[in-house]
UniProtKB/TrEMBL annotation:
Name of this protein: Molybdopterin converting factor small subunit
Gene3D superfamilies hit by this protein: 3.10.20.30
Pfam families attached to this UniProt entry: ThiS
PANTHER family: SULFUR CARRIER PROTEIN CYSO, SULFUR CARRIER PROTEIN SLR0821-RELATED
Bilayer-spanning residue ranges: none
């Protein structure tokens, strides 16, 4: 089963700078385990204590997996998984400063 996984810039050091990689698995959890065998170290950046890390968003065919079943979400051949780190913060500008 081939699953296309889109990798964010910050994690490309684990994928030899590849934007997309292929993996396999019948769930997100199995897919991540497969990615770890091909790209050692990536799993710790995605999962903590058996759950997605708080600031990592994962989308299955444009649907947030947290609303589908988390890392237990089922996959089928040809699915597309996108990994995105959450973006937060920034400094207030102009008159917004406190």
């Amino acid at each position: 089963m081939a699953i296309e996984v889109r990798i964010p810039t910050i994690l490309r050091t684990y994928t030899a700078d590849q934007k997309k990689v292929e993996g396999s698995g019948d769930t997100i959890e199995a897919l991540f385990a497969d990615l770890e065998t091909r790209h050692p170290g990536i799993l710790d950046r995605l999962v903590d204590g058996g759950e997605l890390r708080r600031f990592i968003n994962v989308y299955l065919n444009d649907e947030d997996v947290r609303f589908l079943g988390g890392i237990k979400t089922s996959l089928t051949d040809g699915d597309s998984v996108t990994i995105l780190p959450a973006v937060a913060g920034g400094a207030p500008s102009g008159n917004d400063a406190v």
